[in-house]
Every structure is written in C-alpha cells, then in structure tokens.
Amino acid sequence: MKTVTVYLVRHGKTWFNTFNRMQGWSDSPLTEDGIADAKRAGQVLRNITFTHAYSSDTMRAQNTAKTILEANLNSAVPLTVTPFFREQFYGYYEGQDSAESWYAVGAPHGAPSLKAIIDQYGVDASKDFMHDADPFGAAEDAITYWTRLQKGFKLLRADNQNGDNVLLVTHGTTIRSIVDKFGKTDGFKVTDSPKNGSISRIALTDEGIKVLSFNQLKLEPGLLK
C-alpha cells in the first residue's frame, strides 16, 4: 500500500494575525515573531528528508517554507507553489475584525463566535454560514473549498512515491479543516487553531487520509530521522 507522509506547517505569525484580522486570500507580511516561528519549525524539521516541498501561493506561506528549507540538512528540493492549499476565502469578511466577523456569521445560528460554531455545528458549517452571510456570496462554502483541496491531494499523490516525506506549508483553517474531517474518528479535536509554525502530520494512503498528529511545536524523538 502506498503511503506518503505529509508534514503540514502553519505559516509564521503575520501582521493580520497580530491585529486579529480575517486573513484568507488576503495576505500580510510575517512579523519578527513570524520569522522566528518559521526558523523554529526549520530547526525541528532539519533532519527530515523531504522528497518534495509545497506551499500555498500566499507570500506568508512561501516565505515560511523557504525558511524551513534553508535549514534542512538533507533536502535540496525546489518549492512548488500551489493555490490548491491556499487558505479559505472569506469573501466580504477579508481583512475585517475576526471576532466581529464571526459574531455576524454565527449569531443568527445561536453561535456568536467561531469556537461556538465549531462546537455546535462543525468546521464545515462555519464555511457554509460565512458564504450565506456574505452579501456578495463570494466566501467559499464547504463544497467549493473541498473541491479545491482535493485537487491539491491529487497533486501530492501523483508527485510522490511510497515512503516519501513531503513538506506542505499552509494555513490555520486549512490544517484545522483537514484534521477535523479526517481525524475526528481517531480523537483529534480542533477546538483551538494550530499555532503559527506548528507541525501536524497526515498520511496519504490508497484508502484515504489518516491524521497522525496535530499542532505540535516539536516532534517525537523517533520522527527526527
């Protein structure tokens, strides 16, 4: 059975993260803390041999990925940039205050925060609620979002062989969505968003996707080779 291990890293902290702004397809630079997040992840992953490296096409993800690859002792692979693993598109709410946005999206459903929406309805429902609340109808709903991500998984499967390790730098809601969809039955909970620069791991197999870990700032000793 073919198994490809994907190391999912959330990009380093940005200015929009600092200001608690909605940041999906919109982009803001890494802060000094964000650069430090990327360097920390690079040190944690420096001994992993990657066969391929990918990032979202946002600059925050690309710059994080380049920093990680610069620290790697074993891999000299080019970075493949793809829109398939870009963050969820928040439409009208891009750049707006996060708490105010999620209140507007969730309050009509009795869930006045993102945490409340996820607890009561799930991560995919937060996408559908935002799409419905967007006066322009531009925000991605769950079907649109997952159609895009499945193209990304197809790319990873096509590029890699059994036993390969892959670096993928992407976004908080994207990692959260993946872990929620494929890791719930194994007890993984996504009440909290993954930290900037944190590492989660999934296995792509012939049977589907299995979540191996979520939101770690370091790896178990057995995974450092």
Automatic annotation (TrEMBL):
Transmembrane segments: none annotated. CDD domains: HP_PGM_like. Keywords: Hydrolase. PROSITE patterns: PIPLC_X_DOMAIN (PS50007). Gene3D superfamilies: Phosphoglycerate mutase-like. It comes from the Bacteria. PANTHER family: FRUCTOSE-2,6-BISPHOSPHATASE TIGAR (PTHR46517:SF1). This is Histidine phosphatase family protein. It comes from Lacticaseibacillus yichunensis. The lineage of its organism: Bacteria, Bacillati, Bacillota, Bacilli, Lactobacillales.
